[in-house]
Structure to design on (430 residues):
């Protein structure tokens, strides 16, 4: 406030005079003020800075209420825009007087080749989660039914309006279901350049796969894409393969949001006849075998699903069966995997007429998914087989050779023989 302790007199004929308290004016002068800027300049020239503060504060307080929708809306100065704008003052302000924009805009479709002429730029920006530039030829802002006297945007020649889309809703908990297998995931809408297409993807990790669900309402078509990943553990990989196995068996999968069915689709026979589904049953057995071996031998495998070979699957099967004291067999028409020392080749192995022949391989090492194992003995037996290189083996035994290669073929030409294998003394090596 001004200090009123000094005496000041304003004559009846005075016009637009200003009284400056605590000022020493040697010559009497009439100061004529025509606008607020002049007032502030005059106060500044006289060093009345507290007067400037009070003058501007009162002006702003008066301007605040200078709104046709006051007290629901007020007028405030925006330093970024360098002008006054309308500001809601209550929670109900924009409900009672919703903000709308009316105008005319020009869009360069060449910049947005995926935009359909039937959709608005706002719809395109939302479904693609991208920004869209518009050239405004007319632009007016409204609060309810009245034109906003203090708009945020003032139309100028060649004004460019940039539409920034709101984000898609947050990810939601969902469940993939096929047969009796369920996998919980987090799912969210994803951007799409294809008009009329809705895309959902998982945002959670650790499942050993990514899933993408694409729905096209116009064609009433739903497509599910599953891509395997190395981001899980053995248990998650096992669950993944069980899910894929169920799809192969039932030809059905669905996605649930709690108790609500989000999507259900039928997979065609042609679609499931790909490696992803065809080999799921075999991989279920493989991951079950690995988990069994981990438990029995206190080891931890390092899995990269794309590196899984038929030899690894067979090795895991033999190791598990051996830990359960069981034999594993396979049908063959030729085998060259046996290497024996002369003293491990039994007499009957050299008798071509026998129906069951066998041998023992000692001190073998095998490597499986990052873990090395030592095997004391590998027991091998053949049924309905005969030695293919009999003379070579006999010479090796006679001169007491080590690591004699023994190859086998079926006893009867054109048929297959059985090979039985079991390991003894399996242990993890450092």
């Amino acid at each position: 406030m001004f200090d009123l302790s000094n005496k000041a007199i304003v004559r009846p004929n005075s016009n637009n005079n200003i009284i400056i308290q605590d000022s020493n004016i040697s010559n009497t002068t009439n100061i004529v003020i025509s606008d607020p800027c002049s007032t502030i300049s005059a106060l500044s020239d006289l060093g009345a800075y507290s007067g400037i503060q009070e003058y501007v504060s009162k002006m702003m307080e008066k301007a605040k209420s200078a709104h046709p929708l006051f007290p629901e809306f007020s007028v405030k100065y925006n330093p970024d825009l360098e002008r006054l704008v309308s500001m809601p003052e209550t929670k109900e302000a924009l409900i009672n007087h919703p903000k709308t924009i009316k105008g005319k805009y020009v869009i360069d479709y060449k910049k947005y080749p995926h935009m359909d002429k039937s959709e608005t730029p706002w719809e395109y920006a939302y479904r693609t989660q991208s920004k869209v530039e518009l050239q405004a030829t007319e632009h007016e802002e409204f609060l309810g039914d009245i034109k906003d006297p203090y708009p945020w945007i003032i139309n100028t020649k060649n004004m460019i309006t940039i539409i920034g889309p709101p984000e898609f809703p947050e990810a939601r908990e969902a469940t993939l279901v096929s047969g009796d297998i369920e996998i919980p995931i987090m799912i969210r809408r994803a951007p799409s350049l294809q008009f009329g297409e809705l895309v959902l993807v998982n945002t959670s990790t650790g499942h050993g796969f990514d899933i993408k669900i694409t729905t096209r309402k116009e064609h009433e078509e739903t497509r599910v894409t599953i891509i395997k990943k190395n981001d899980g553990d053995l248990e998650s990989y096992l669950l993944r393969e069980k899910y894929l196995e169920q799809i192969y068996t039932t030809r059905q999968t669905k996605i649930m949001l709690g108790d609500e069915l989000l999507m259900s689709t039928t997979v065609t026979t042609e679609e499931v006849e790909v490696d992803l589904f065809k080999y799921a049953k075999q991989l279920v057995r493989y991951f079950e075998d690995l988990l069994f071996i981990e438990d029995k031998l206190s080891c931890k495998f390092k899995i990269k699903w794309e590196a899984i070979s038929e030899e690894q699957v067979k090795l895991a099967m033999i190791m598990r069966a051996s830990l359960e004291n069981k034999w594993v067999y396979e049908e063959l028409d030729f085998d060259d995997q046996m290497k024996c020392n002369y003293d491990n080749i039994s007499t009957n192995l050299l008798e071509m007429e026998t129906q069951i022949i066998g041998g023992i391989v000692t001190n073998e090492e095998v490597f499986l998914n990052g873990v090395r194992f030592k095997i004391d003995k590998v027991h091998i037996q053949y049924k309905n087989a005969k030695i293919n290189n009999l003379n070579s083996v006999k010479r090796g035994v006679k001169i007491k050779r080590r690591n004699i290669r023994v190859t086998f073929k079926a006893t009867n030409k054109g048929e297959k023989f059985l090979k039985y294998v079991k390991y003894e003394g399996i242990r993890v090596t450092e």
Q: What stands out?
A: The CA atoms of residues 104 and 138 lie 5 Å apart. Confidence is low (pLDDT under 50) at residues 1-11, 14-33. The chain has ten helices and 20 strands.
